Amino acid sequence: MGYVEEVFEKVKAKNAAEPEFLQAVEEVLESLKPVIEKNEEAYRKAALLERIVEPERQIKFRVPWVDDSGQVQVNTGYRVQFNSAIGPYKGGLRFHPSVYLGIIKFLGFEQIFKNSLTGLPIGGGKGGSDFDPKGKSDREVMAFCQSFMTELCKYIGKDEDVPAGDIGVGGREIGFMFGQYKRITGQYEGVLTGKGLTFGGSLARTEATGYGLLYLTEEMLKSNAQDIKGKTIAVSGSGNVAIYAIEKAKQLGAKPVTCSDSTGWIYDPEGIDVDLLKEVKEINRARLTEYAQKRSSAEYHEGKGVWSVKVDVALPCATQNELTLDDAKTLVSNGVIAVAEGANMPTTLDATKYLQENKVLFCPGKASNAGGVATSALEMSQNSERLSWTFEEVDGKLKQIMVDIFHNIDDAAKRYDMEGNYVAGANIAGFEKVATAMMAQGVV
Ligand code: NDP
Ligand code: 2IT
Predict the structure, then answer these.
(1) Residue 348 pLDDT > 90, yes or no?
(2) Residues contacting 307, CB < 8 A, separation 6+
(3) Of 22, 229, 298, 358, which is least packed with CB atoms within 10 Å of its CB?
């Protein structure tokens, strides 16, 4: 058995109850085989792969809080500090009832390679809780966030670990957590990103993941003799990533025709009305049925279905494993030319393989959704120099970072004779920098 297989067997035995983590590790290790084979003896001796799949630190804690009826509620909080070889731990916090250690570990593991691809000095981490912000009052969300931060603040800091948002964590939650961190520690520092613009947030951070996804998709299409302009696009999700993906797609002359939430989906053949979507989701925190009520061109469907629409490009922007093999078959039979992941690991492994075999351009999330964390790192730079850059300056840097990421992963795939395999390219390019740093830093 080769070194890569040996390590994966150990990971499976040790993390058997964490299928999402195993899925993320399997995809990365599979891609790294040709890289490892070139230098197998040194990597094996240094136990490089065993170290890269083992988080440096995992923190799990109780989060008690009082609901509006006076009842005490208890949730579980997590922070997985996965790898600090190239910078302080960086990665979002997810508040969703499905959160358990395996989800946080998969996200933290992906974050190592994603953050490396940005070219910026940030290590990999992720955290969150099984708390469900849906249907909670602002006071309940504040009570939860304050209790969560009361424990988390012991383990984070501007040069140590800098969390941000993810599913269920947006500007409101980051504001409450920042306030509590400052109150407990007395430090006014850039310990979180995605902050409000009046207290150290960066212009364009809200838009960054969705905009970045489109900048990369545009570049991927261009380098394959295609133009984003005029393309019909299916987007899933209707949260932070989806909304700004739809907005930028329209600005680039494409036509996004779908979006979804956990209860249903919209098909709007005239193109999604992004102002209405923002009103429904960002202001009213309502369901997509409200979008359909206010827009005569829109059809609302219960359940899943965005991938059944005939489109040129598909952008999954909701959650993990939302695009399955059956969905991939439908997309291919409808003539899709490109799929780029806005969410983390939204495409199952068999669906990814099917798309690649059928010559669909496929970009994995660790490359195509890296614009969010890249702009978080730009927020950290602005906080360090106590300055705020203009929207144009941040957006310009974001665009350049996404174009560079595409060419970097494209080149890495070519170097290993896998031209067009952007999954392999992203894993290899992300790994190379982290591996070099880990080898140089000795046994830590
Ligand atoms: P939001 O909470 O803003 O939006 C999430 C969207 O996905 C909502 O429309 C939500 O619907 C839907 N969704 C979430 N979970 C499920 C589920 N289990 N089944 C069906 N639909 C679901 O999160 P973001 O937009 O920030 O995140 C979306 C994805 O992008 C995640 O995978 C995240 O990890 C990834 N990501 C986010 C970045 C960021 O900067 N925010 C950066 C890079 C990646 P509903 O409201 O009904 O639950
Ligand atoms: O998955 C991700 O990259 C994020 N949720 C953003 C992380 C960040 O630190 O901005």
Answers:
(1) yes
(2) 234, 236, 314, 323, 327, 328, 330, 331
(3) 229
> What predicted TM-score, i.e. pTM, was given to this entire model?
0.98
Distance, in Å, from the CA atom of 215 to the CA atom of 402, rounded to the nearest integer, reads: 6
**Is the distance from CB of 307 to CB of 331 less than 8 angstroms?**
yes
CB atoms within 10 A of CB 35: 21
| pLDDT per residue as tens digits for the range 21-63 | 999 999 999 999 999 999 999 999 999 999 999 999 999 999 9
Whether 222 is catalytic = no
Query: Is the CB of residue 238 below 6 angstroms from any atom belonging to ligand 1?
Result: yes
Helices then strands (H, E): number in the chain?
Answer: 17, 13
Catalytic residue among 126, 195, 248, 281: 126
Asked if 274 and 245 touch (Cβ cutoff 8 Å), the reply is no
The string of pLDDT tens digits covering residues 252-266 is 999 999 999 999 999
Phi/psi region, residue 253 (left: phi>0; alpha: psi -120 to 50; beta: rest), is left
Q: Which residue has the tokens 């080898």?
A: 439
**Using CA atoms, how far apart are residues 284 and 195, in angstroms rounded to an integer?**
21
Longest dimension (CA), the chain: 64
Q: Which ligand is nearest to the CA of 316?
A: 1
